[in-house]
Amino acid sequence: MTGTSKINFSKLSGAGNDFIVIDGDEEKSLEVNPALIKKLCHRRNGIGADGLIIVKKIDDADFTMHYFNADGSTGSLCGNG
Length: 81
Prior knowledge:
Layout: E1 10-14, E2 17-23, H1 34-41, E3 51-58, E4 61-69
């Protein structure tokens, strides 16, 4: 993400944790990488969150989601997200 980019997102919170949620079908051109995740989740310079969740529609279920920790690593989803 260089310069100014627009990303549609929701920020959801529960039980003391907060998450950035992005519709992966809507933001198809978004290249999710550790640097972008860190930037978005940074509490002073970004949106600020404990993690990022990308949600996409799939054929054999209502949706699938990919969860990333605020440090950019792939995470196992906690019960709050």
